[in-house]
Amino acid sequence: xxxxxxxxxxxxxxHFGIGNNPGxxxxxxxxxxxxxxxxxxxxxxxxxxxxxxYPLLFGDWDIILDGFILELDEEQxxxxxxxxxxxxxxxxxxxxxxxxxxxxYCLLYEKxxxxxxxxxxxxxxxxxxxxxxxxxxxxxxxxxxxxRWRQRAFYDYLRDLFAMIYRIPLIRVSxxxxxxxxxxxxxxxxxxxxxxxxDLNEIVKFIEQKVKSAC
Length: 215
Fold this sequence. Notes:
Layout: H1 2-16, H2 28-33, H3 37-46, E1 63-65, E2 68-73, H4 80-85, H5 99-108, H6 110-117, H7 120-123, H8 126-132, H9 147-165, E3 170-174, E4 178-181, E5 184-187, H10 188-194, H11 197-214
Parallel strand pairs: 2-3
Antiparallel strand pairs: 1-2, 4-5
Helix pairs in contact: 8-9
């Protein structure tokens, strides 16, 4: 749901300011120097990648702010394929999100991912099938499952590696993250949809704390 990202982007840019785009591609030599070439290949194969060369270019960042990048992870980002990438030893180096929480979200909310992303280009496309093979039946995760889900998980993984290698603070916020506001526990997704000012201010504080921990 684009609306949530737009609300968060406006809120964050007003508070932190707009930053410079660091690019969106890893380079083989940088992966090699980081000792991650074989690990990235292992994750690629575990996701079912069928081409020998895996991509190192990924899509645009969600929100580029002054001093850090913010990614809002919605329903389509939590499933078994993303859980596969989260098992990479690269995450022991450090990250801008709670690895245990994200792994748990992948297990708990895969059905929500299915509700949102089991059809059309959310499920497959010619380009994703060239990377991961022919798709399974829409909504059926047995067998080949969804090439697009696999691709999204890999690209999220590349973003995380990019931040680690080039030392760019990357903060991930999930719509399932919980915040205490006005004595109530609410999810980030609910707060962004409801749009109450006091609750939105708590999101700012929540992200500020993450930035302090990451920097």
